[in-house]
């Protein structure tokens, strides 16, 4: 019989999104650091073109993931108004 515990903590959606964000940020950073290892556009023009496109795509996914995390984490943080705030009535003086 295996000794694997069956009451492991549930991996929440927010935790998965944060892990995805961390992984995508590592990918973008790794692409940025290729020059350290001698991968230059002059040496590998086709490879660097593809990697720059991949980096741009990764950055777009990072932005979307950050938005998703912000909405999921605290949706009320997206608004300036709280429940107790009242809007000022502005009279229309064009009439």
Q: Supply the number of helical segments.
A: 2
Give the SSE string: HH
| Overall strand count | 0
Residue share in helices? 40-55%
Beta fraction: under 5%
The dominant shape is flat
Radius of gyration: 23 Å
Determine the N-to-C terminus distance. 83 Å
Class of secondary structure makeup: mainly alpha
Overall mean pLDDT stands at 82
For the largest beta-sheet, the strand count, sense and barrel status come to: none
The residue ranges in which pLDDT falls below 50 over 5 or more consecutive positions are none
Report on the structure:
By secondary structure, the protein is mainly α. The chain starts with 12 loop residues before the first helix and ends in a 22-residue tail after the last helix. It is flat. Helix content is 52%, strand content 0%. The model has no long low-confidence stretch (mean pLDDT 82). The chain has a domain of 62 residues. It has 2 helices and no strands.
């Amino acid at each position: 019989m295996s000794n694997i515990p069956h009451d492991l903590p549930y991996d929440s959606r927010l935790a998965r999104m944060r892990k995805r964000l961390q992984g995508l940020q590592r990918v973008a950073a790794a692409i940025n650091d290729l020059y350290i290892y001698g991968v230059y556009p002059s040496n590998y023009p086709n490879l660097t073109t593809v990697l720059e496109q991949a980096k741009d795509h990764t950055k777009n996914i990072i932005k979307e993931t950050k938005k998703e995390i912000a909405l999921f984490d605290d949706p009320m943080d997206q608004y300036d108004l709280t429940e107790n705030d009242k809007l000022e009535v502005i009279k229309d003086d064009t009439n």
